[in-house]
Amino acid sequence: MNAPAPRRLVALLTLAGALSLPAWSAPAAPAPGAVSTEAGQLAIRHEKFTLANGFEVILVEDHRLPLVAFNLWVHAGPRNEAKGQTGFAHLFEHLMFAGSRHVPRGEFDKFVDAAGGTDANGSTNFDRTNYFFTLPSNQLALGLWLKADMLGWMIDEVDSVSLANQQDVVRNERRQNYENRPYGIADEALYQALYPEGHPYRASVIGSHADIQSIKLDDVKAFARTYYRPNNATLVLAGDFDPKEAKALVQKYFGSLRPGPKPPEVNVAMPAITKERRLVVTDRVELSRLTLAWHTPAMFRPGDAELDIAAHVLGGGKASRLYGLLVRDRQLAQSVEVGQGSQSLSSVFEIEVVARPGASLDEIEALVDAEVARLATEPPTDAEVAQARATIETQVLQRMEKVTSLADLVNHYNQMAGDPGYVGQDLARYAALKPADVSATVARWLQKDHRVAVIAQPGEQVLPPEVATPPAPTKAGKGEREALNAPEVWRNKPPAAAKAKALTLPAAQSFTLANGLTVIHSPKPGLPLVSASLVLRAGQGANPAGQPGLAGFVAAMLPEGTTTRSAQQIAEATAALGATLTAQAGAEEARLDFSGRKAAAREGLALLADVTLHPAFAAPEVARKQAQRLGALAQAREQAPLLANVVGNRVTYGDGHPLAENALGTEASIKAVDAAALRGFWQAYYRPERAALVVAGDLTEAELRALVEPLFGAWKGEGAAPAAVPLPPARPIAARTVVVDKPGAPQTALAVVAPGPFASTPDVAPLKVMNAALGGLFTSRINNQLREVKGYTYGIYSGYTLGRERGQFGIRGSVRTDVTGAALVDMWKEIEGMRAKPMGAAELNRVRNAQLLSLPGLFDTNVAVVSGYAGNWSSGQPLSAITDLPKQYTAVTSATALKAAREHLDPSQLIVVAVGDKAKVVPQLEAIGRKAEVLNVEGKAEGKPQP
According to the UniProt entry, where is the signal peptide (predicted)? Predict the structure, then answer.
């Protein structure tokens, strides 16, 4: 259902170094979790067993929250595809959600919504396909009923109609992620250069249009018979359950599935590259990009861990060598990414550098080559290796925080290492290696003659001939369906839920320092992790007239140097902690975020305080950041969905409104910024009385107070605070349609927008329930009609942005170019239908429960809790606004949801922004009675000069 899993997934799955045990007093004991430290190593308590039919089950009992994650891996991916069937495994993933013998078509996701499910999706990578969701713990039986029917009886309902629909959906996904995404076709060209014809990794996971469209129903059935059998799948249950009950239910629901023959082995040698392969790919991009890639050892093989460390040393963040050289010092690169993409047959080590406007890729490549050569001859420093280990350790701990990602991690180790508890041995790989091992491995594998170099540069996008979409069948043919397992009538009735546990959300308390700084604290004992956010009323709305982008520029400058630390020293200090420290400005607030291990909390909060209270705004750093933001402005023009949002804000708010411009500003405003302007804004708006520090994690209130008082207690705003000036309202508008031309685009990116209510509106809960039905859920009316019924889109969703002084409604997504007009007609029908009559009881219960019962799963990490309370403070709501959510959602009725639709969903105010091929889109709009205005990428009339 979602995009193919990133090739660098493994970078987040590996673990380095022994777990550091923090020297803090122990908070109140949490409910027992599955993650522990045994003999100084990280471990996941689990139990694995196999049913008589070969079905593997792994139980991870974890009672921290009343949730259970259901994570089903089928051990098949593109590595198992036949020749000419690229994308088959991924297409099959989509078909798994179309219905089964005992779960009617279209009902699977509705059951998950009604039960309060979260994180419901599927994904495919080269080596496997997974299907996952997380439910409240009283729905253990329901989750197993659904998973068993997917695996055992999905093929019963696949026919030519469902196949044709999902072929359309997947081809839309391909357009969105490859043809209509910057550098998408260059990414695909890289793998085609790395791997020869016939190698299962040669094609992208999603496959080609020709292969997707050529898949036949008989192919689907054969794939199911071979791979979708209980003896080729593993289920991980992670969360709050009784193991004895879980075992009995697993046997009940999966025990009768018939095993299949053992799938054929896949033995493919790593391709040998003996001479550098170079290719140039032109694409609709504004910035050139260099990608260098090598074949490297398979996952968990000797050399894999060393190259993972090498990737961090070379390009693992702002402290890395290539970032410092290319982005900070030479200012040749917009961004640098380096990763060891570990896979089962072989891995790929990849260096990716996006050039600044006007920078030479030849110069960049020479500098990259020199750094790789230096690492091959001179071992990294002990500090560099320690930084990499700390970062990887933190990432793995954070994966264990959610039962959803914990379950997936266990399944990953089970398939790729043959041991669901492999985390300890994974740790040992990193603890054992020495800097010299990294250097020797780089010298062995990253030789210039053994690589592929892909240059992506601006130019015409060259695609294969368009593959026609045949008319979709309207009904299944006779004899199209077959079964792998006998129908079992008792499965027709979904199991009842057990008694639900009390629905509680993470509470927070607040206290105020003498200088006016609000501190909001939500304790979350368990894993030794802490997250914090300093949120200030210093967003785009505070930008002075004629200085768009200034708020964002100030926030971006904060980690780039203080009066006592350089940008490099800040980056190195953050990396040494294995932490993240970021700063950005939104519409109404600026935020500085820290996340890391509890052992890093003291130093991490000290860094956060330093960059907030003592920014240097040094002239060289300002100039560097100017160039970087100008590059980002160019990149924004490449991305159709982002461009649709930018133009949507322009036409909603109008010239002169602080929120009308791109958050980056304009080319002129970026060039005009100097240190004095930045410091003036910081002095005016970075003040303790205008700020809140929100902290969640494994800290007691006493521990937090002991940290905060010395770091932030002496903070005082400089000079007099400016008078608070309310944001001007969005201008009264009438419906209009605007088009931004993107010649040759295979999709139209849509943003259908209008002003909306503020966070203070008393009907927030009815509004959100109504929107869930309209376009907020995967099962919503709009997404179901445009994706599942018509096959126009990969996905399209609606939502309300509810701020302190800013509100906006929007429907956003991309549709196939040739159905732009038809998609808008269907969208309007759903909008009018939402306003015409109240929801029926079944739909109301489903969408209301999707909001209400999912709440524990939406606040299951420190980052989620901090984000919730930070947004709450920013929008002017009391702490109780979060803990009162269950009561508010429970009170929503069909009548209150209908009232919210009629008051806050006015079709006469909706503005359609369409970014796509003007020559093809405008006639469609005119045919449905919409006169289109053509605007440029700044949202102004074509040809009008930029101020």
Answer: 1-25
